[in-house]
Amino acid sequence: MPGEKEKKKRATIRDIADAVGIAPSSVSKALNDLPTISENMKTLVRAKARELNYKHNSNAANLRRGRSRTIGVIVPKINVAFFADIIAGIEQACFENDHRLIICQSHESFEREMQAVETLIQQNVDCVLISLSQETKTTDHLKEITNHNIQLVQFDRVDHTFGSHILVNDNREASFKAVQHLISQGYKKIAFFGGPDYLPLYKERKQGYLDAIGSAGLTIPYNFIVDNILKRAPAEVAATELLRLKFAPDAFFTVSDYAALGVLKAAERCGKKVPGDIGIIGFSNEAFTEVTSPTLSSVSQQSREMGRETAYIYFNYVLNHHDDDKAAHSLKLVIESAVIERESSVRKNKKGNKAGL
Amino acid sequence: MPGEKEKKKRATIRDIADAVGIAPSSVSKALNDLPTISENMKTLVRAKARELNYKHNSNAANLRRGRSRTIGVIVPKINVAFFADIIAGIEQACFENDHRLIICQSHESFEREMQAVETLIQQNVDCVLISLSQETKTTDHLKEITNHNIQLVQFDRVDHTFGSHILVNDNREASFKAVQHLISQGYKKIAFFGGPDYLPLYKERKQGYLDAIGSAGLTIPYNFIVDNILKRAPAEVAATELLRLKFAPDAFFTVSDYAALGVLKAAERCGKKVPGDIGIIGFSNEAFTEVTSPTLSSVSQQSREMGRETAYIYFNYVLNHHDDDKAAHSLKLVIESAVIERESSVRKNKKGNKAGL
DNA sequence: CTGAAAGCGCTTACAG
DNA sequence: CTGAAAGCGCTTACAG
Lengths: 357, 357
Known about the structure:
CATH class of the largest domain in chain A: Alpha Beta
CATH superfamily of the largest domain in chain A: Response regulator
Order of helices and strands of chain A: HHHHEHEHEHEEHEHEHEHEEHEEH
Helix content of chain A: 40-55%
CATH architecture of the largest domain in chain A: 3-Layer(aba) Sandwich
Shape of chain A: elongated
Number of helices of chain A: 13
Distance between the termini of chain A: 93 Å
Largest sheet of chain A: 6 strands, parallel
Strand content of chain A: 5-15%
Structural class of chain A: alpha/beta
Strand order of the largest sheet of chain A: 2-1-3-4-5-11
Number of strands of chain A: 12
Radius of gyration of chain A: 27 Å
Oligomer: homodimer
CATH topology of the largest domain in chain A: Rossmann fold
Largest interface: A-B, 46 and 45 residues
């Protein structure tokens, strides 16, 4: 209709001030519930704010305050179960603490990771949570973050040489426990399918395997240890090869569930029973591990907790110790993984054990 | 050391101006690459900006410009494959168009959905993309968005009565095609496991099933149609019951892959061969459908494309037709789903078909 | 308890 | 091609 403005502007603090007949600064204080304003006035202001459909303008307030109540997270990929769950955990912590969350993906590219850092700095986030891309080998961009007085927490894929708060999985211990579990089921010839060996995370998982083998006094032929087997197809090929040897493995520990799946298929194809003849345990506790026949044992990384705890480092520790000496040293937290025992690694009669007696 | 400032402030446009010896406004224009500044000066300014480690302050610029180059998305849950993929698609579109993305979850709660809307308005987003929570039955909060001159696009779970741009799946057609596929494989007694019937999405999928059955001239006993079977366990129970009847189904179309999995287990338990005796097709193309034995046929909703297209409605359509009459009417787009034929529904010899001849 | 004034860091007409 | 001035919508010492 003719009486209406074509593009009605958002109501501002000044509109409320004019309507109520007080100063804009008082409106601001009333809306922020400062003790220096009378209750009557607050009620009046709030009522008028509602009436005018006023919305607080975060941009303006953040600019003035110099803080944004926003944190940024950078992950390689959001539509991977592990990271999606981590983000869900972070989001929960942000919600509890009334903060906004901006999510960036590096797509495993160092270039994109640097861009994401740039974006988050420009956005004035108070804190960056980051899990490094596979390509990342330097930390200048992390330095950039802290240089701008932005808090930094690394999680899962971290650079230990850079002094920031850090939260990681207990990769070595988790792998150790997984292999111990296989041993407890009577498996003795345990093969290992690892990841790219230059990534610390995979190095740790391999170490856990080696330690468990060592402390059980088992000996493993060198060809039972294969790096860079993360996907299903290569695992199937590699496992088939091993299973056809005269001295063949009786169990596989893989650092990925997809590789575990490949092993399962290889065993099927070679006519081996799982878990009777061959035991299998993977890593990550992907949703599909509950759905195969037999179901796949795996290591659960507690990703949701991990996300929550990462954010809590900022909310519960950093925010509270802004100026203490405490804030000086960097936190190193470890999230304990859990071995999820499913059908692929649990023997009813511990056949292997008996055979050994 | 003593010479350093304890908390170095971020460099501003004014710092650059002082260092170069020109006006702040000229610095702004140079950094924004406006044609009204000489190339020499731009080079000078850029160099100094790098030297001072200057970062553009989005908060300040957004406040001044009145636009934020940020879009907000509200989904029920981000760590569900369907939505994680959608968000990945949206993120891609945002990246291409140099926009930021703020992600909110409703957790299927109307209350939380309203809070998310509030947050996004306060954050000054230029556009909101939303998939409604299961609880959402009113649209006042959507009106709130458009009232604040913020663009709105609904996707997947939408309210058709509210006049906004909309992007949906072709639920009815997809179901129709899925059932047609079963029929083409010679299945004739096709059961249906649906969702809660009050949600339009599930109503449409059921309609597609009914239409396909009807147009093939098949008749189906009423007890072959069961609503509210979305999870594995109830599907296993319901399917077992049906398979034990003397007049039992020879195929199942379920609106969820988890239900399809339950049917698969039921068939196994009843000693029925899949796909020989029983055909199965699910919905959503969850990752695990590729991993079961036999692998599960499913309907792929092209979630990533869906996310991308949703964002494109804003970037390619809304942004370009700001003031046209075109922008007046709301777009309704449909993303075509694809039937993914896997082992659980593809018969080698079309046994059922032959029997029918 | 309330208000006037300054300022957060930019951008944008407008003038030269 | 460059600059001075105003202003985006808030918050925060400071004064009364």
